[in-house]
Amino acid sequence: MHDHVHHRSGNGALRPLLIAFLLTLGFSFVEVVGGWLSGSLALLSDAGHMLTDAFALALGAVAAVLAKKPADWDLSFGWGRAEVLAAVINGLLMLLIVAAISFAAIDRLRNPQPVQGGIVMLIAFVGLLVNILAAWALYRGERTLNIRGALLHVMGDLLGSVAALISGAVIYLSGWLPIDPLLSLLICLLILISCVRLLRDAVDVLMERVPRELSLPVVGETLARVSGVRSVHDLHIWRLDSSTVSLSAHIVVDDLSAWPAVLARLRATLIKRFGIEHITLQPEPIEQVEPVIIDRVSAP
User: Fold this and answer.
1) In the chain, at which residue ranges do the beta strands (DSSP E only) sit?
2) Strands 229-239 and 245-253
3) pLDDT over 90 (residue 270)
4) C or N terminus of the chain, fewer CB within 10 Å?
5) Is the pTM for the entire model greater than 0.85?
């Protein structure tokens, strides 16, 4: 069994997700009451947004619990990718929210609605404080894709509170209603950029892409230059989850009896130069390898 799952922090991801969930869920009810008292459709819509985000944070918390489960006979690599799946679902949810807010903002530009700026400012200010607390809790947690997905939702809420605060002030002071939908569209654009990056990174893990900070040819050539190594082939580098990079390769050597020393040098090189610790290397004597692959690195 692989033992990488045992290196996870017990509460590194779960605790901040639970804190953010409780803060977001609690304040969504405050917005419902505030929207009902003020007659503000904007606040009621944002309450629905925050309820959706609370669901996303709950999903992230469940995934964090699953990710701590040890490997078993069916999932020999463990449950680490549960957090990656949660990041994908949260990213897709965020795309739907961005689309909904964008359509609502365009409709509001065409058909301006009266907004009680004072009440909106007050509730937006409280919401800003709540979202800062939630974002701070998540930012201090583990830097997994799951946490990034949850943080994306909270930052969307935080920016929404800033927009509501600014638009409430502008409407209160000048009565200019278009400021609300215009700021909403700007924030949607910022969230969209972060969302696309999150989905790209999550899909990279699911597709077992070579991590973007590494180059497969460079790693292969570095291994081939290690003393005792003749060539490298069937080299694969991928992410098991948000934090674990794995590597496997076939190593052609002149002398199998020297393999323990060669293996130690290869492991030291991978750890020191590239930070790769989850390593599987298979030695092959030079007599069993066709001459065509000698002295070069071959991709899969």
Assistant:
1) 229-239, 245-253, 278-285
2) antiparallel
3) yes
4) C
5) no
